[in-house]
Amino acid sequence: MRPSVLITGASSGIGAACARACAVAGYDVGIGYRSDRAGTEAVAADVEAAGAKAVLLQGDVAVPEEVDAIFAAFDAAFPRLHALVNNAGIVAEAARLDEMEPERLQRMFATNVTGAFLVARNAVRRMSTRHGGAGGAIVNISSVAARIGSPGLFIDYAASKGAIESLTTGLAQEVATEGIRVNAIRPGLIETAIHGKGGMSDRLAKIGHTVPIGRPGTAEEVAEAVIWLLSDKASYVTGAGLDVSGGR
Predict the structure, then answer these.
(1) Is-contact 138 86, C-beta < 8 A?
(2) How much of the chain exceeds pLDDT 90, in percent?
(3) N or C: which terminus of the chain has fewer CB atoms within 10 Å of its end residue's CB?
(4) What is the DSSP letter of 140?
(5) Whether 194 contacts 206, CB under 8 Å
(6) How confident is the model over 215-219, as a mean pLDDT?
(7) What is the pTM of this model?
(8) Distance CA 211, CA 189 (A)
């Protein structure tokens, strides 16, 4: 039986790269997405071309009932959940805190924090030996922004990723004896569409060269780190955060 992985926010960017990499690594893939059906179908085609099963799982992680529906659809498609890539997240246009409206903050934290917690909760309920599961691995997608704060740009996004750091540390300890490893990846400046969504489509062209390694990273480079943390090669790694940031 092939192992199966659920990846949220997998219609593009890092999530899509993780879906493709997981398929190559031998996983069947549940591809979570909120609204980009066409992008998700393209990812699914790549997953199937690699010889894996792909199932599209639509839902907004900011809505508890939709998170439950994502997992119910996953359960219907796969014998069990072996791994989770907790990736779904949003960013808003660059702004200072004193320019941010409450609605922006509410949406940011509903998706990036509460959503990530709800997704992890559902995964634990399926993986944990306490609940009759057989264990598994969770990789939360954090960000270097959690460490640097992103002043004048996205401190709300940075704070939401700080919460992911705390989730990773605490949950890893909660479930360490229940067969589940929990780790985080901290991407740095990565070539994805998220910069455009933040109103800064030229950001990498302007500052990519300032990264110590001299260039931005790729979503595929992040995915390779995720694959390692999901694998048995990382069997003694839990509660860790791995920077994939070119030294930034």
Answers:
(1) yes
(2) 92
(3) N
(4) E
(5) no
(6) 95
(7) 0.95
(8) 8
Task: Give the DSSP letter string of 162-186.
Answer: HHHHHHHHHHHHHTGGGTEEEEEEE
Closest-CA residue to 29 (of 49, 147, 190): 49
Q: Please identify which of the residues 27, 33, 157, 236 carries the catalytic annotation.
A: 157
Question: What ranges in the chain are assigned the alpha helix state H?
Answer: 13-24, 37-49, 64-77, 102-109, 116-127, 145-148, 155-174, 194-197, 203-207, 219-230
Q: Is 33 a catalytic residue?
A: no
Binned at pLDDT 50, 70 and 90, residue 207 comes out as: confident
Structure tokens, 219: 């979503």
pLDDT digits (tens, 9 = 90+) for 68-125: 999 999 999 999 999 999 999 999 999 999 999 999 999 999 999 999 999 999 999 9
Q: At what angle do helices 116-127 and 155-174 cross, to 10 degrees?
A: 20
CA distance 89 to 120: 14
Domains in the chain (CATH in brackets) are 4-244 (3.40.50.720)
Give how far Cα 77 sits from Cα of 5, 6, 72, 121, Å. Answer: 11, 11, 9, 19
Mean predicted confidence (pLDDT) in 199-212: 77
Asked if 78 contacts 27 with a C-beta cutoff of 8 angstroms, the reply is no
CA distances from 93 to 53, 62, 101, 140, 182 (A): 36, 19, 12, 23, 30
Q: Give 154-183 pLDDT, tens digit per residue.
A: 999 999 999 999 999 999 999 999 999 999
Please state, as a whole number, how many other Cβ atoms lie within 10 Å of the Cβ of residue 106.
12
